[in-house]
User: What shape does this take?
Amino acid sequence: MPRKVSYGVDFDEEYDAYDDYRDDYDYNHGNGIDEHETAWEPPVTKEEIVYQNVWRCPICTYDNDEYMSSCDICGVLRNPLIKSSNNGQSSTVDGICTNFGASMMAKSLFTSLPYESPRGAVTVNFQPQKDDSSRKEDTFSLHVHGKFHDLHNAIISEKSYKVNIVVPNLEKPSTSDAPSNKKIENANLKSNPKSSNKSPPLISKDKPQQMENNNMTQTHKISNEFNNITMSGESGTSKIANKGKMGKTVSRSQYKPEKWMLLDEGEDRLSQLNLAIVGHVDSGKSTLSGRLLHLLGQISQKQMHKFEKEAKLQGKGSFAYAWALDESVEERERGITMTVGVAFFNSKKHHVVVLDSPGHKDFVPNMISGATQADAAILVIDASLGAFEAGIDSAGGQTREHAQLIRSFGVDQIIVSVNKMDAVHYSKERFDHIKLQLGVFLRSCNFKDSNVTWVPLSAMENQNLVAPPSDARLLSWYKGGSLLEAIDALQPPAREYSKPLLMPICDVIKLPSQGQVSACGKLESGALRNGTKVMILPSGDIGTVRSLERDSQACSIARAGDNVAVTLQNIDANVVISGGVLCHPDFPVSVTNHLELKILVLDVQTPVLIGSQLEFHIHHAKEVARVAKIVSLLDAKTGKVTKKSPRCLVSKQTAIVEVMLQGEVCVDEFSSSRALGRVFLRSSGTTVAVGVVTRVIVDDQS
Ligand code: GTP
Ligand code: MG
Assistant: This one.
């Protein structure tokens, strides 16, 4: 998760065109579609990119592969329609994308692009595997930006790695991948000798799943299961010592904190609140975040003008506020968020760290990596007709998946921002309809009604964000508070200041010229200050904290809950990798590839079997996992074993399983560290199970 946003510096000083800029920014976008977007003209300063065998979506300008019958980003149907190769996959709601596989372009972005690499257009002919009969074409062209060798690697991995999913009755397989976490991570992993034999991108061969029960009324009750998963890490089986690679078994409870680590009672400090902004693609998450930052003074007027002007120049005028968070060229060109954007503002009670997540299904791994730090969340809903329905659709709606994921991260307070109310004329009926439908689903995810706040708003028209609405239509029926008031009402969780240090590494920033390396992430427990000795896992090297930065400002102490950049010295930069962990040298967590998990299987069509190959996510790490054993099936309510060694797991079942990972991860049992003990299992671009680590298994190495 790159720190894409740094508002500490006004990089706009030399913006000389500012004075010429007109103040009358045009908000007349209808359903969020700017008039300019339909008439895309590439900026003259840019190298023109020639795409072949793709069709450009007239709405979001995304270049879709030729065989797509609807836009992979916004779901708009291609006009004129072509005969789709995805026979049988019809839209459920008009204009809603039902294609399950990750787009090739998005795949290549995950797999290959290093951070801020020079871009050029490359066209490659991609030969599908012979057994890939789901595609009608023998070849199709893939157009991506990036360095050629990275692209080459992406294609090679597509072609050469076959993951053998042992699934009976498997229909015609098709290629699909599960992208790696982030471009910056990839770059770092590549430079790390320990990760040189990292697993290739997981390529699942099972058929894209098409869930049938799209209807909200058919939402399954999984609250008890979520309860068990989120509240308890006990497996009911006997535990063995949590002894990882580091070989130390000192209990964290024996730790005696130093005085400086503890929060001074008299210290006048706003409480830290890590707030994930989640929701379906294009619901307005980045626009909402950008607008909030602007209204709260974090983005200067001058800077905002710059965004507006540049966005207009690119034919993306309506994305001006989103540009505050969508910083990369790719994100801006496509009008979608790809990596989590981080920004901050102060409310009356909190110092809020905004984690603006990507909504597109291809980028859920990035969403997991970023939003796993969240203390609370804003679930952004697009109120426009058809858009809410798309988000809640069981076949690929990210409102559903994000809500489930957020809950399984342990987040129990959520603000539902029903955005784009302007597009439905601030209709009370529409708001009530959404509240009713979504409320049922959120309850099924075990969100308590009392912890869910509903706020109708329009980010674009600045209605009900930081002040009461001014639009008479909304005022006539809405009597609640603004979004900012709802944020202030959130309760930050209790922090583990007095526990040993634990900081999962989200990002790594290297400045080779200065011989510096910084690890970024959220302190889950303990505290840090200059001079503190830390162990860097998985390598086990010991380094010293040289300096600390919070919100782009140097600070002397960072405590649990803080989102910081820790610059280290006396350390080989290559051992600091995202997915790794900084910890107290005497209290290392385990580094292992063999785990026992307690999982809840979500709505899946393909059962989980022994041998099933899945994508394993834990804090900021990702690995290929194989289900080695299904130990037992549990009663969802009591947690008692109902069946030993079942052959498979289906939707809504809770079970104890053992997984073998292709590479090692830094992990702890959920009972000792929630942050390092929560896992997510994904396949074919969807989350198939959420769970907790119940046991770190030490294999005898003779
Ligand atoms: P991803 O990060 O790619 O999932 O998208 P997002 O949820 O961040 O959406 P984004 O902020 O990029 O906005 C998508 C589109 O919705 C843009 O064209 C915005 O202008 C538009 N939009 C956002 N908020 C509103 C709103 O309140 N009303 C209307 N009419 N359009 C909006
Ligand atoms: Mg966004």
In short: The chain is about 15% helix and 25% strand. Residues 1-50, 81-248 have pLDDT under 50 and may be disordered.
